[in-house]
Amino acid sequence: MSGVHIADIASVAGVSPATVSLVLNNKPGVSPDTRSRILELARSLEYDLERSNNLAHGKAATIRFLKVARHGHTVNDDHAIFIANYINGLSLEARSLKLTLEIMTINGGPAEALVSATEDPGIAGAIVLATEMTSKEIRLFKRVNTPLVFIDNYDETEGFNFVDMNNKESVLIAISHFMEHGHREIGMATSDVATPNFQMRTAAFNEALQRFSLPSRGDFIFHVDSTYAGALRDMSGILTSGAKLPTALFCVNDIVAFGCIRALKDAGIRVPEDISIIGFDNLPASAMVDPPLTTIEVSKVEIGRLAMRTLYNDITLDLHQHPVKQLVSGELVERLSVKALEAISAETKTN
Q1: Are 189 and 126 members of one domain?
Q2: What is the spatial distance between Cα 86 and Cα 89, in angstroms, rounded to a whole number?
Q3: How do 148-151 and 186-190 pair as beta strands?
Q4: 340 and 220 share a domain?
Q5: What is the pTM for the complete model shown?
Q6: In this predicted model, what pLDDT tens digit does every residue of 328-339 receive, in sequence order?
Q7: 223 near 192, Cβ under 8 Å?
Q8: What is the 3-state secondary structure (H, E, C) of the chain?
Q9: What is the domain-level CATH number for residue 47?
Q10: What is the pLDDT of residue 2?
Q11: Is residue 1 part of a domain?
Q12: Which whole number is the average pLDDT over 11-32?
């Protein structure tokens, strides 16, 4: 794609970017002389008129979805369903916009390969699953002229389009639910795996404790791997060491919650009678684990649709210089892994 943008054409033509956009998208509202002058300028500046015309007339353009696994601790078979939901949302919106969706998987390898995959002249734009990508890796895309949207990641300081879940709000919902059930000793099972959403949830957890004037105890923060087997192994080791437990535990995602629940059960600790647990993601298995897991759900389909729509607007309106950052709110899915402290105390007295 050419590095020339609508703003460049508008500056040379002495008109507004909105006027240029109307012309390039074949919309009414511009005089014939101005239209002719803008089109001639666009050609002389080597603006990609073919791509613009194809999209304006509903002709299929190819959008590449990059499914990226940098370390594989979160982008793996355990999370295949949430990746499928992202793709479902992308596909639904692509179909409505008459775009062709192409999926490319990149596992490991040099970060430079990710950048190269978005520079293909055969694509109109790319959506990048940035779950396991660092800010440093994302910055490598600054040289790319192809319109881009990053999903499942969020960076306020980088000049790119991002669509992600609202981690701060979602964690606040989880902590509020614990508090409504009488819990004041609230811990977290987090992971040191390089996943930005985990880091954002950990920061949000600490902020929520401060907001509600709850005690922040380092011994109630448990660091485990983000895979099921790894979380089970690590939490089992923590319990074997004799660690004191809070009355409630927020887990950085459902997979971690599943591993922790199994480890707790193996150690003779009951959920929710001895400790309440909330996860994050609402994976299908959350409804089937014993006990069924209370968790946070954020629509991955909606994130996919928003990302595709954002990319389409970027391509058709040439909004490169005005990136947008969007967060989708989560909601609590209440099941049986949280119990009120008052109910637990009453049962203890009865027994």
Answers
A1: no
A2: 5
A3: unpaired
A4: yes
A5: 0.82
A6: 999 999 999 999
A7: yes
A8: CCCCCHHHHHHHHCCCHHHHHHHHCCCCCCCHHHHHHHHHHHHHCCCCHHHHHHHHCCCCCEEEEEEEECCCCCCCHHHHHHHHHHHHHHHHHHHHCCCEEEEEEEECCCHHHHHHHCCCCCCCEEEEECCCCCHHHHHHHHHCCCCEEEECCCCCCCCCEEEEECHHHHHHHHHHHHHHCCCCCEEEEECCCCCHHHHHHHHHHHHHHHHCCCCCCHHHEEECCCCHHHHHHHHHHHHHCCCCCCCEEEECCHHHHHHHHHHHHHCCCCCCCCCEEEEECCCHHHHCCCCCCEEEECCHHHHHHHHHHHHHHHHHHCCCCCCCEEEECCEEECCCCCCCHHHHHHHHHHC
A9: 1.10.260
A10: 46
A11: no
A12: 82
Tell me the residue range of the domain where 249 lies.
167-297+333-350
Confidence of residue 37 (pLDDT cuts 50, 70, 90): confident
The structure tokens listed for 281 are 């993601």
Q: Beta strand pairing status for 331-333 and 276-280?
A: unpaired
Asked whether residue 191 falls in the same domain as residue 283, the answer is yes
Q: 205 and 339 in one domain?
A: yes
Residue 158 tokens, joined = 């980088």
Q: How many residues does the chain have?
A: 351
Residue 174 has pLDDT above 70, yes or no: yes
Q: Are residues 292 and 190 in the same domain?
A: yes
The residue behind tokens 């087997």 is 229
The total number of structural domains that make up the chain: 3
pLDDT tier for residue 15 given thresholds of 50, 70 and 90: confident
Q: Which amino acid is at 69?
A: A
Q: 339 and 222, same structural domain?
A: yes
Q: Confidence band (pLDDT; 50, 70, 90) for 275?
A: very high
For 107, residues 6+ apart whose C-beta sits below 8 A from its C-beta are: 69, 72
Q: Are residues 97 and 121 in the same domain?
A: yes
161 and 171 belong to one structural domain: no
* HEC readout, 150-201: EECCCCCCCCCEEEEECHHHHHHHHHHHHHHCCCCCEEEEECCCCCHHHHHH
Contact 293, 335 (CB under 8 A): yes
